[in-house]
Design goal:
The complex is a heterodimer of chains A (375) and B (533). By secondary structure, chain A is mainly alpha-helical. Chain A has one domain (49-335): ABC transporter involved in vitamin B12 uptake, BtuC (Orthogonal Bundle), CATH 1.10.3470. Chain A is built from 14 helices and two strands. In chain B, 36% of the residues lie in helices and 23% in strands. In chain B, strand 1 and strand 2 form a beta hairpin. The chains are: A mainly alpha (375), B alpha/beta (533). The interface between A and B is large, with 38 and 56 residues.
Chain lengths: 375, 533
């Protein structure tokens, strides 16, 4: 038995968690710093001053009167989309259709809101439910195609975004569906009726900043997702499926059931994000318009990516992304194009994709250099 | 006398804290087959990789024909006249034999010349092969023949073979050694034969270097060596256990010693009475590409017996293991586990019916590398929370009992001697032997009816092999039906009470330990049908 023990310990890899995480964190921070420096260089090249741009961004996102309330309002759907994305990513699936799922959710919510004719908390709840159903159905199509017809969900979810835009566009041309039927608004094409005031989310006013109450629901959902992934059998099995599909199959995790579930839940989160946008008031002034999602779906996907698929980490990331969005409105005064914030976002995303590559190259280089020296 | 073809002096190579080679000297002479003998993990392969330029040594000198050389990649080694046949095939299956031979050469493609060259080599060395055949249609023996042709086409002065017989039937191994003898005698080449099997080193080589734990422990002329002495040198103490002898490829160990064999024989006789715990009938399965994986396979395992499935790799072993892991659907046929008939292919059905599996590729279907050790120990039935109140329990069952899981994991880590820094360390941080223990611990702790072990000792060191073998015997002794699927004939011979031979997706022969006939077994493995008797 002594031989067994010795052989086993000689073969085991040393694993120093604290030191390795410190190194990894350091590399991430350095990478983000470099990204921000590159952003400053880009600004410099376009003739802007980065101090004034930063100042404008901060004014627009948090410092200006009432601005952080607006940023929170924008951050809510970003957070929801990111949470949904985390669920499908943890199950090993790629959902690229958040934009479409969100749009369908918002459209179905609009339909319910404008066709019921009454208001009140019950109707508000129905609108949310319709949003959830819309997103879930739209992602569900991709799930059915994936598990019945073996079509990769990467493609189907992405392509369904364009189908969603066309379908909602059709609804917005048709008075029986979504188009505002009010006769005296002939020039207001392709826009839905405005939601009745009693079907809107109440807004809170804190220190002169107002934002919809759904902010708390979004935070609760982030905690809920964390708990489900960590403390439930379903969460455990979803992640098993993502990390070892064949092992999971043998252990009794049905790919179709759990993978399908993950996609549908992911879509449901996006649909709910759409319903929150519709009833929250920060987007489209309580009316559905063409191009209603305004890239919130795509950006939510990036939030999940930057947040390394962690449901609590994405909360601050969603806020930062929302701040870049709200802050960009204030850039006009500095003479810098507001699209610069998109460059910053892209650089941030890249900055978080670079460290894993650096770590890989580092380990390889070290081994090669050490070997070359000795021979 | 001229200088040796290759001379390695003071070769040292460390991987982290592990010393793979420790100041090793080795001399390969022309006209000789040099056996390099050692357990798995003794440093043989690393030493050969140094010579072929795949591994750069930390210290030491390599002389080729007396000249000190620095070999930093296999292309340089090839220029110096060193060729290697690796343990695992590196062939492109959809291509033909001659296409594989010229693959990687930077010359104008000339099919006729290439085919002629293949013909010349196969004639010169007696390696008959059809240059136009597709590799996917070749048996393992022919594939290896092709690998050897690939190596010989550059006419190397030094030929290295790394564990060449692991995929061959005994007959094919003998043919291989004849070819090697021809290469050495006619062309005065130097051959290095790396192996952990005593018998083949004794039979095929002129000189033997024995390695243990990264160092050379003995050098002998083959004429002066005998099996017990070599085994002692290899393991570092007298070898007594049957499983160890078998792990070293020494089949005679148990035939010499009837006292050891008897209990197993009795067990086999006793085991014939009860109802089988596993019975597969007429299993037919096809792969996605339409290839037949199982072709009417039938077999039975009774409680308390170890049934060994012998056969050359690629004859349906993987499909059989997949079938019992719920990873394969059947076109026809049934699987019965005791009184149930779990539907093949339905997720978790086999596991739920009580079939435990230690798969050949544990990374693919045995464990999840990116999860922790404790998660891996509870993949199949994660412990569920309980409240003690009937009403709440229904809801609580959806929750993980994380504390319970940790306690369960720590118990198994202790019980199975798993070397891990912590219960929540990631699975990838464990060595192969310890990962295998995790799989074994999980599967055995679930009170299985049947235990399927596919290549359970592949890539493990002798200590771990001994451990796994003991556990399999223990499981059988406690009434579990054990199905051992292995391409290592010695392992099957060592452990099994009854041996069945798998060939092209079906069982074509069977014999029990009492009527064991190794020669007939070898014939069956190469596809010779059983005679009418």
């Amino acid at each position: 038995m002594t031989a067994t023990g010795a052989a086993a310990s000689a073969g085991s890899v040393r694993y120093d968690r604290a030191r390795e995480s410190a190194t990894v964190l350091g590399i991430y921070l350095a990478s983000i710093a470099v990204a921000l420096m590159v952003a400053a260089l880009v600004l410099f090249a376009t003739g802007g001053s980065w101090t004034s741009v930063l100042s404008a961004l901060l004014d627009g996102s948090v410092r200006g009167p009432g601005r952080w309330g607006t940023t929170i309002g924008v951050g809510i759907p970003l957070l929801l989309v990111a949470l949904g994305t985390i669920i499908n990513s943890r199950a090993g699936l790629v959902n690229l259709g958040q934009e479409g799922q969100l749009f369908v959710g918002a459209a179905l919510g609009t339909y319910v809101a404008t066709h019921i004719g009454v208001g009140g908390p019950g109707v508000l709840f129905l609108i949310m439910l319709a949003g959830v159903a819309g997103g879930a159905i739209w992602a569900g199509i991709a799930a059915v195609l994936r598990y019945q017809r073996r079509m990769p969900e990467v493609l189907t979810t992405l392509l369904l975004v364009f189908v969603a835009a066309q379908a909602v566009g059709y609804g917005l041309k048709n008075k029986n569906l979504l188009l505002d039927p009010t006769p005296d608004q002939a020039n207001r094409n392709l826009i839905s009726e405005r939601l009745r005031p009693d079907t809107r989310i109440p807004r809170l006013d804190w220190f002169g900043n107002d934002f919809p109450m759904t902010a708390f629901i979004a935070l609760l959902l982030a905690i809920l997702v964390t708990l489900v992934l960590r403390w439930t059998i379903v969460g455990f099995r979803l992640q098993m499926l993502g990390r070892g599909p064949r092992t999971a199959h043998r252990a009794g995790v049905s790919e179709a059931r759990y993978g399908g579930l993950a996609l549908v839940i992911s879509g449901a989160f996006c649909g709910l994000a759409g319903a929150f946008m519709l009833t929250g008031g920060d987007f489209g002034n309580y009316r559905l318009t063409p191009n209603y999602p305004v890239n919130i779906g795509w950006e939510g996907l990036l939030v999940a990516l930057v947040g390394r698929n962690h449901p609590l980490v994405v909360i601050p990331v969603a806020f930062v992304f929302a701040a870049l969005r709200t802050g960009s409105g204030f850039l006009a005064a500095t003479g810098v194009d507001r699209d610069i914030t998109k460059v910053v976002q892209a650089l941030l995303v890249l900055a978080l994709l670079v460290p894993p590559a650096i770590l890989f190259v580092r380990d390889r280089r070290r081994a090669l250099a050490a070997a070359a020296e000795r021979v | 006398m001229t200088s040796p073809a290759a001379e390695l002096t003071g070769i040292t190579k460390r991987f982290g804290a592990v010393v793979a080679c420790d100041n090793v000297d080795l001399e390969l002479r022309r006209g000789e087959i040099h056996g390099i003998l050692g357990e798995n993990g003794a440093g043989k392969s690393t030493l050969m990789k140094v010579l072929i330029g795949l591994v750069l040594p930390d210290a030491g000198v390599i002389r080729i024909d007396g000249e000190p050389r620095r070999i930093s990649d296999p292309a340089e080694a090839a220029e110096l006249g060193i060729g290697m046949v690796h343990q695992h095939f590196s062939l492109v299956e959809p291509l033909t034999v001659w296409e594989n031979v010229i693959l990687g050469e930077r010359v104008r493609l000339d099919a006729t010349a290439a085919k002629r060259r293949v013909g010349e080599i196969s004639e010169r060395y007696g390696l008959a092969i059809d240059p136009d055949e597709r590799v996917s249609d070749l048996s393992a023996g022919l594939r290896q023949r092709l690998e050897i042709i690939k190596c010989l086409r550059r006419d190397p002065a030094i030929v290295i073979l790394d564990e060449p017989t692991s995929v061959l039937t005994p007959g094919e191994s003998e043919q291989l050694f004849e070819v090697l003898r021809r290469v050495v005698e006619r062309e005065n080449k130097a051959v290095a034969l790396v192996s952990h099997k005593l018998d083949e080193v004794l039979a095929a080589t002129d000189r033997i270097t024995i390695m243990r734990a990264g160092a050379v422990v003995d050098r002998r002329g083959t004429g002066d060596a005998d099996a017990p002495g070599l085994a002692r040198a290899m393991v570092g103490r007298p070898v007594s256990l049957r499983s160890e002898g078998a792990a070293l490829g020494h089949i005679e160990t148990f035939e010499d010693d009837p006292a050891v064999t008897e209990p197993a024989v009795e067990a086999a006789v006793e085991a014939t009475e009860p109802q089988p715990v596993l019975s597969i009938r007429g299993a037919v399965a096809r792969g996605r590409d339409g290839r037949t994986l199982l072709d009417g396979l039938s077999l039975e395992v009774r409680p308390g017996e170890i049934v060994g499935v012998a056969g050359v790799e690629g004859n349906g072993q993987a499909a059989l293991s997949d079938l019992l892991s719920s990873l394969l659907r059947l076109e026809s046929g049934t699987v019965r586990v005791r009184d149930t008939e779990p539907p093949p292919g339905r997720p978790g059905a086999m596991a739920a019916a009580g079939v435990a599996v230690v798969p050949a590729d544990r990374h693919e279907s045995g464990c999840v590398l990116d999860m922790t050790v404790e998660e891996n120990l509870t993949l199949v039935s994660p412990p569920r929370a309980r409240t003690g109140r009937a009403l709440l329990d229904r809801a609580a069952r959806a929750l993980l009992d994380r504390a319970g899981r940790q306690a369960h994991a720590e118990r198994l880590i202790e019980q199975f001697g798993i070397q891990t820094p912590a219960a929540d360390a990631p699975m990838w941080s464990l060595s192969g032997g310890n990962q295998q223990r995790v799989v074994l611990a999980r599967e055995l702790s679930g009170d299985p009816v049947v235990l399927v072990a596919a290549q359970p000792t592949r890539g493990l060191d002798v200590g771990a092999i001994e451990y796994v073998s003991e556990r399999l015997r223990e499981a059988a002794a406690s009434g579990v039906g054990v199905l051992l699927i292995s391409t290592e004939l010695e392992e099957v011979l060592d452990l099994a009470d009854r041996i069945v031979v798998i060939f092209r997706g079906r069982i074509i022969g069977e014999m029990d330990r009492v009527n064991l006939d190794v020669e007939r077994l070898g014939l069956l493995m190469s596809g010779a049908q059983e005679e009418a008797s």
